[in-house]
Amino acid sequence: MELPSRPEANSSEADAGETEVSRAKPLEKSLRKLAVAARTLIARPLRLWRRSIQFRVVVSVIALSAVVTGFIGLQLIDQITDGLVANRAKAAVAEASTEKAVADERLRQAGASNFDPGAQLAQLVDSMVVRSKVRGFEVVVIGPIKGAAGAPTGGIGLRTSPGVSASSVPASLQRAVERSEGASWTYTKINYIDRADVAGVAVGNRIVLPSDGGTYATYFLFPMDGEAKTLSLVRSALLAAGALLVLLVALLTWLVTRQVVAPIQIVRRVAERISSGRLEERVKVKGVDDIARLSASVNQMADALQKQIRQLEELSRVQRQFVSDVSHELRTPLTTVRMAGDVLHDAREDFEPVAARAAELLQAELNRFEGLLADLLEISRFDAGAAGLETDDVDLTEVARSVIANTQPLADKRGVTVRLMPSVRVLAEADVRRVERIVRNLVTNAIDHAEGRDIEITVAGDEHAAALGVRDYGVGLAPGASAMVFNRFWRADPARARTSGGTGLGLSIALEDARLHGGTLQAWGALGEGAHFRLTLPRKIGEPVTHSPLPLAPEVTP
Q: Both 405 and 356 in a single domain?
């Protein structure tokens, strides 16, 4: 017993599926390309709209001109249409009255000698048709609508011009003619059997046929194809004139805006070159108009900026040189004074109480002076670009614990508790000495301003960055102080005494250390709410820091 070959069927189904997939792939690629092209087509005008004042002005003027021109054109077309149609209707009524008078005269002259109403009516209609070919109208006769002396109607029926349908006469006009003794008219559509329908004017009158005394409704249909051609010509002329006017306005707008925008673009390019460091760039001044005065003002501003920048560069160079020279020149005398101070400090037990206290104060100030000199030397290295990194895998949590242990005596003296929360392991490639110095400066600064309240150290990290935050709940920072707190020798309150023996350079050095790692050091603070300093380092040296795992400002709870 042989089994059915289901594997072959599965194989054919798979081949069919692969064929469908292969057919779908080019379609998907085409749709994707179409979507990209559509986005590009839309993005370019939007980009021009955002970046170019000239483009916005020209497009706005074109749009407004098109709206105004279209509105005026529509009003003119409506007025012209109404005038042509009204004149055509007036002329049609007059001509229909003339034709009725001619028909009445013919019937009066013929009298009742011809006792065949059908022949008499056919003769009348044929004469009307002959004149209609010359005068340009169509004829429809219906009746009788009223028999002689109240006799019943009917019998003869309908007569029309060749090729004209009786449906061209609206029912409303037929009722009006049946009720009224005078002429009635309305707009209609003349329906032809062998050609396209045209708009026209239908005028209805009554005539009395002498042969039978019956009343017949006579309708004269006046086509308005000539007026339609005139309106089409007027529309084309107005459309061409409107397009030409809009194009002319757009061209004039472009020329006018070009005269204004082009000098501004030149000024912008010169300003960009100046901002990039090419301080010698200047704008060529032509004329005495507003643009020329703007160019002259930009040149004056550039001259002033160049002068100020050169002065600041020279001052900065002098300051850096002064700091470097002073820090190096003070090392030798400081060493001598330190040796003498150590001797006096060791022998203070043999001195009088006043002299012994003086020796202790001398030792403390020498320690502070050495710290200041070390900071000055470090600042000079940063200014000279000689600072380097000795990187290794550093655990920020362990660094925080070490700093807490080292600053514990100072914290106990101020009655402050420093807590590490949460205690997680966060590694980063960094210089452990510089990172520890950053954290120590942040912690000692927080202790100095905590006013006896607790200090919290938070460590967090993700795939790209590691962060450490020091939060105190003391004095806080005034508005705008967070941007100045890292300046050299800056103090939030000059009246406050330093209790930790700082030099005023700690936060500046911490900021330079953070920048040397490619990280950031930021501050937040509010008066009465404390301050928060956040250090953010890349996990790997050289990677950019685009975010921080820790928030800088505290979350506001409703």
A: no
Is the same domain home to 359 and 399?
no
Side chain identity, residue 109: Q
Ramachandran class of 440: left when φ > 0, alpha when ψ lies in -120 to 50, beta otherwise: alpha
Torsion of CA 144, 148, 151, 152, to 10 degrees: 0
Separation CA 195–CA 138 (nearest Å): 14
Q: Which residues of the chain have pLDDT under 70?
A: 1-25, 110-115, 147-157, 319-320, 323-324, 326-328, 375-376, 379-386, 491-504, 555-558
The residue among 153, 131, 133 whose CA lies nearest residue 144 is 153
Residue after which a domain boundary falls, among 226, 254, 281 = 226
DSSP secondary structure of 437-475:
HHHHHHHHHHHHHSTT--EEEEEEE-SSEEEEEEEE-SS
Question: Where residue 422 sits, what CATH number does that domain have?
Answer: 3.30.565.10
pLDDT of the residue at 375: 67
**Could you tell me the CATH number of the domain that includes residue 210?**
3.30.450
Quick one: pLDDT at residue 553?
87
Residue 454 belongs to some domain of the structure: yes
What are the tens digits of pLDDT across the range 149-163? 444 444 456 778 888
Q: What is the residue range of 157's domain?
A: 115-226
d(CA 212, CA 148) in angstroms, rounded, equals 7
The count of domains in the chain is: 3
CA distance 139 to 101: 15
Distance (Å, rounded) from C-alpha 239 to C-alpha 236? 5
- pLDDT of 420-479, one tens digit each? 987 788 999 998 988 998 999 999 999 988 888 999 999 999 988 999 999 999 888 888
DSSP 288-330: SSHHHHHHHHHHHHHHHHHHHHHHHHHHHHHHHHHHHHHHHHT
User: In this structure, how many other beta carbons lie within 10 angstroms of the beta carbon of residue 114?
Assistant: 13
Helix (H) or strand (E) holding 185: strand 184-190
Residue 197 CA from chain centroid, whole number: 52
> Which residues, 6+ apart, have CB-to-CB distance to 74 below 8 Å?
none
Tell me, what's the pLDDT at 164?
Answer: 86
Q: 10 Å Cβ neighbour count for 247?
A: 12
Contact, 455 vs 470, CB < 8 A? yes
Would residue 427 count as lying in a domain? yes
Domain end among 175, 203, 226 = 226
Domain annotation covers residue 146: yes
**Cβ atoms of residues 228 and 199 within 8 Å:** yes
Distance of CA 199 to the CA centre of its chain: 50
Task: Record the pTM.
Answer: 0.48
Strand 465-472 and strand 530-538: the pairing is antiparallel
Domain shared by 335 and 421, yes or no: no
CB 244 within 8 A of CB 139: no
pLDDT (0 to 100) of residue 157 = 67
Whether 122 and 203 map to the same domain: the answer is yes
pLDDT score recorded for residue 324: 67
| Separation CA 53–CA 369 (nearest Å) | 60
